[in-house]
Amino acid sequence: MIAYVIRRCLLAIPTLLAITMISFVIIQLPEGDYLDRKIQQLEEQYGDSSSLARVEELRVRYGLDRPMPVRYAKWIWGFVRGDFGESFEYEREVNELIWERLAFTVLISVASLLFTYAVAIPLGIYSATHQYKWSDHLLTFLSFVGMSLPAFLVALALMVFAFEVFGVPLFGLFSSYYEGAPWTWGKFADLLKHLWIPVVVVGLNGTAGLMRIMRGNLLDVLGQPFVLTARAKGLAERVVVFKHAVRIAVNPLISILGMSLPTILSGSAIVSIVLGLPTVGPLLLKSLLSEDIYLAGTLITMLSVLLVAGNLLADIALAWVDPRIRYE
After folding, report:
1. pLDDT in tens, 275-301
2. Exposure letters 133-146 (e unless 16+ CB within 10 A, then b)
């Protein structure tokens, strides 16, 4: 098992390098660069180029006067050392821009994953063990509704609901009083008050889909011969379901877990824009539109690291849950 983990970690290095190369090139595929668009904006604003004296200085400062392979090598070497470069759009170090946003993004993503699995697995088990009853039909209907509703529409509906019921506009992650304020217990409580809406919205589609998967897998397992044998031996139905059937039926959900974190991170961009959340989704979108190569490349690389790490953790968890699986 240890050898398997080490081998996967070593294989992740060339995979991440390939992702960074492809991303770095694709971001710059449109003609021109950030400074070319900046020049155009200034000329449209002022009608001449008198305010563009710093353009060449900025071009040298950001390394845009060098060939693309040289820029990539310089950026990736700095990335390894923790220096992610400077953002064109914000004229600040990428480090300063992403860490706080990344922390909030991971918080929302992990909370959404916990919400998704904590709700989907029990409901899927209940639906499978009560097949074709009215409760099963109701859960099936709700799951289809949950999978079909756009996340941004759910976000808007929950915002209206929270305002009508609680009388507080839950926009963003903090109330206006705590924006930019130092951390206190009051600010933490205010964060928790705002956090449930993005967690529910981001996790809703995944919850509905995973519930259907869990139901289908468990129904397949409950029809297998070893389950019939366990029942014939007189084991309690609760023991048959939870000790024998669920342990096997949950395996695909663990495999899906490795793909869930980056999917939630990338899929919550629109929700973050609607709810005004300080996450990496809107920042990544804006950096791609403006060809802010160092900021966009850093965010894409970090999402790729989460994807690789999530798959590795899912494989380890799968081997731990199912003793039939062994990696040599």
Report:
1. 777 888 888 888 888 778 888 888 888
2. eeebeebeeebeeb
Class of domain 102-321: mainly alpha
C-alpha to C-alpha distance for 74 and 59, rounded to whole angstroms = 15
**Mean pLDDT for the chain?**
77
Between 43 and 158, the more confident residue is 158
Instruction: List beta partners, residue 161.
Output: none
3-state secondary structure the chain: CHHHHHHHHHHHHHHHHHHHHHHHHHHCCCCCCHHHHHHHHHHHHHCCCCCCCCHHHHHHHCCCCCCHHHHHHHHHHHHHCCCCCECCCCCCEHHHHHHHHHHHHHHHHHHHHHHHHHHHHHHHHHHHHCCCCHHHHHHHHHHHHHHHCCHHHHHHHHHHHHHHHHCCCCCCCCCHHHCCCCCCHHHHHHHHHHHHHHHHHHHHHHHHHHHHHHHHHHHHHHCCHHHHHHHHCCCCHHHHHHHHHHHHHCHHHHHHHHHHHHHHHHHCHHHHHHHCCCCHHHHHHHHHHCCCHHHHHHHHHHHHHHHHHHHHHHHHHHHHHCCCCCCC
Q: Is the pLDDT of residue 49 over 70?
A: no
Residues 52-108 pLDDT 10s:
666 667 677 777 777 888 888 888 888 888 778 778 777 788 888 888 787 888 788
Residues 6+ apart with CB under 8 A from 278: 100, 101, 104, 172, 173
Report pTM: 0.73
Of 105, 162, 92, the closest CA to residue 277 belongs to 105
Nearest Cα to Cα of residue 258 among 117, 101, 105, 152: 117
The alpha carbon dihedral of 40, 44, 49, 55 has a sign of negative
Domain with CATH 1.10.3720.10 in the chain: 102-321
